[in-house]
Amino acid sequence: MKRPLLAAAWLLAGGLAAFTPLAARAQGSGSPTLDAVRQRGQLACGVTTGVAGFSLPDSKGVEQGIDADGCRAIAAAVFGDANKVKYVPLNTENRFTALQSGEIDVLIRETTWTLGRESSLGALFGPITFYDGTGFLVKASAGVKEAKELDGATICVQPGTSTELAIADYFHRTNMKFTPIEIQNLQEILGAFFSGRCDAYSTDASALAGIRYQQGDKAKDYVLLPDIISKEPLAPMVRKGDDKWFDLVRWTTYAQLTAEEDGVTSKNVDSFANSDNPDIRKLLGMEGDLGKSMSVDNKWAYNIIKQVGNFGEMFDRAFTPMGVPRGLNKLWSQGGLEYAPPMR
Amino acid sequence: MADIAAEAAVPFAARQRPPAAVVGPAAWARTNLFGSWWSTALTLLIGYLALRFAWGFVSWGLVHAVWSVPHNDAGQPNSAPCRAVIGIGACWAVISDKYRFILFGFYPYDEQWRPLVCIALFLGLYGVSANRRFWRRELGLVWIAVLALIMLLMHGSATLGMTVVTDDRWGGLPLTLILATFGLALAFPLAVMVALGRRSRTMPAVRLLCVVYVELIRGVPLISLLFMSSVMFPLFMPQGVNFDNLLRAQVAIILFAAAYLAEVVRGGLQALPKGQYEAADALGLSYGRKTRLIVLPQALRIVIPPLVNTFIGFFKDTSLVLIIGIYDLLQSGRAAVDDPVWQGFGNEVYILLAAIYFCFCFAMSKYSRGLERGFSRSRVR
Tell me, what's the ipTM? Predict the structure, then answer.
């Protein structure tokens, strides 16, 4: 008899304790993750331990890349300050645990969206921020023009990656043979490829394009085969069960895509202050309550665009210096796959 | 009598030194390097190889090396001059561009004087502790004070008007030194207690506990402990309760180091003659005084070489934290050469890292040899 009473008393006390300070501030957003982020004052964002173009510290120790900017964009939406990010470098082994255990609020770490991951890891994938796929880099002197000519080739590949599986599947499917040379370290695998230990180096096409570009004058000695043998859609990842937080992560990317579509950039965003285009007025929070409906400031998208930029700016900053073509990551209106639902 | 007088009369200057054919560098070389045709052939071969290697290194590292590269207007370095000499000359420009990231990791750029001071404090602390003149009780207090000061400097304090830098942004050399120093400083007392506990006759429960602890920890590699602390441990905690990653790694290192050190210390305890224990008992010393005054000073002296061996091993083992995403010295160096601008210039960075590690490890081993000599003087005599 006493137990339920006691429990009720505890609940009441706990509820009061939990609500009193919050009620004064934000009335609770309805999203435990968003509340936790606000209370911490920082977004805990899982990133790579160093992959150029996605997230890599520069000489001053500041994370740069499209994933790092993705973290900044969410922070800008929540706090109005893109710098309130705590980057948590994660490797392929501990990235999902960190998300499941609540150590990070969102995982933006070059992670491929697959059914298995979404159904068994208790996680949801946001919009695809990078369409990638497995490709092959070969020496021009070998005279190989397409992947079908790689029968019997020796291929350098990093073990434990989805690339490894993709190649095995591809060669099985096409009834061809290959010898894998598995090397974990990026420097060593590049050394093996350049010194001719393997005929081809295989990984995500974006990385291959970057590696080829970095060879400077010697870039023409290497050929990136046109075949993309697997789909590697990279997307941010959040825990299941917090739909409001998922909304915010998802619409952060969509806001950046919409901005690019409407021609709004970090440089010219202030010149739209008097715009009478209703789409832009809604995007920038001059009209309607889109931000409020997600429990953030109505100027959330303005802050993202002003401080981080639109999707195209983010991509150009990360990948154009590396010589990675935008390809499938162009807007749908320009022949790519990036498409944002209407923001209204 | 006359003979003796004659001998004594020989002037000092007239005494001949041994002929150069018997002593001196030339003679040494003749006996040791060119003693037989076989030895001569080997000397020539090794000498030739050593010279070739040395010349190759000088030519690569100095003569054909690129020391700086142009930067574009945005401050981005252009590594084309380095790429032109790949395989011929070293590209030290990667170091001058990245050294602050390699040394300090993600630490905010404008605040990097703080980790620099911390490195100096660490070196000062090692220097003072190495001098036997300062070996007294106050040294323990100095250690506590300096380590606290280092923590304060690294973390910062809002009340003192310093920017707070949380430990997820620490990295590079200070982080390696923190992991190693805190790890060994805290593991050592624990190790002594475990070693004593394991030899206890009167407390079987404690002995069992110590045996289980040592065997359990020694039974798994450090990597798996780090993985446990970083991957498994958070899953056992209730949602939202998080100890930070660095603290978890530090605790794992302490537990691991303590198990190994405990076995080293136990070796010393076992090597001590039984008579020492009995003599202490005969004097009526309590267990605590016996251990403190008679047993440990002698036991620890015996185990200096294996202790230093373990210390050096652990100093290097701290670099394993890179697998759980902590940017220690090695991981910062690796991340520096992942930059597409500098991809392919790993050798230069790794040479720098190796030199840093070598300085610390060689200093430790050199010092331990001196210490051993000092301690064993009584026995040698």
Answer: 0.80
Helix (H) or strand (E) holding A137: strand A134-139
Look at residue A125 and give its three-state secondary structure. Answer: strand
Q: Best residue in B101, B165, B175 to probe A by mutation, most A CBs within 10 Å?
A: B101
Identify all chain B residues contacting A210, using CB atoms and an 8 Å cutoff: 340
Kindly state whether A195 is in contact with chain B, defined as any CB-CB distance less than 8 angstroms.
no
C-alpha distances in Å from residue A247, one per residue of A75, A96, A242, A342 = 14, 20, 9, 14
pLDDT confidence of residue B104: 95
Q: Which domains does chain B have, with CATH numbers?
A: 2-63 (no CATH), 172-380 (1.10.3720.10)
Does the pLDDT value for residue A18 go beyond 80?
no
CA distance A83 to A74: 10
Three-state secondary structure call for residue B67: coil
Q: Would you list the DSSP string of A9-45? A: HHHHHHHHHHHHHHHHHTS--S-HHHHHHHHHTSEEE
pLDDT at A62 over 60: yes
What are B275-312's pLDDT values in tens digits? 999 999 999 999 999 999 999 989 998 898 899 899 99
| Residue A313 CB-half CA count within 13 A | 23
Quick check: A88 and B325 CB within 8 A? yes
A333 interfaces chain B, CB cutoff of 8 Å: no
Q: What are phi and psi of B27, to 5 degrees?
A: -65, -40
User: Does B163 contact A at CB distance below 8 Å?
Assistant: no
Q: Please state the CATH superfamily assignment of the domain spanning residues A21-131+234-332 in this structure.
A: Periplasmic binding protein-like II (3.40.190.10)
Residues of B in contact with A322 (CB under 8 A): 340
- Do the domains A21-131+234-332 and A134-230 sit in the same CATH topology, yes or no? yes
Rounded Cα distance between B30 and A208, Å, is 59
A36 contacts in B (CB within 8 Å)?
240
Q: Tell me the pTM.
A: 0.83
**Looking at the domain that runs over A134-230, which CATH code has it been given?**
3.40.190.10
Q: Which of A166-170, A206-210, B149-153, B174-178 has the lowest mean pLDDT?
A: A206-210
The confidence band for B244, taking pLDDT boundaries of 50, 70 and 90, is: confident
Partner-chain contact A88 B346, CB within 8 Å: no
Picking from A63, A91, A217, the nearest residue to B323 by CB comes out as A91
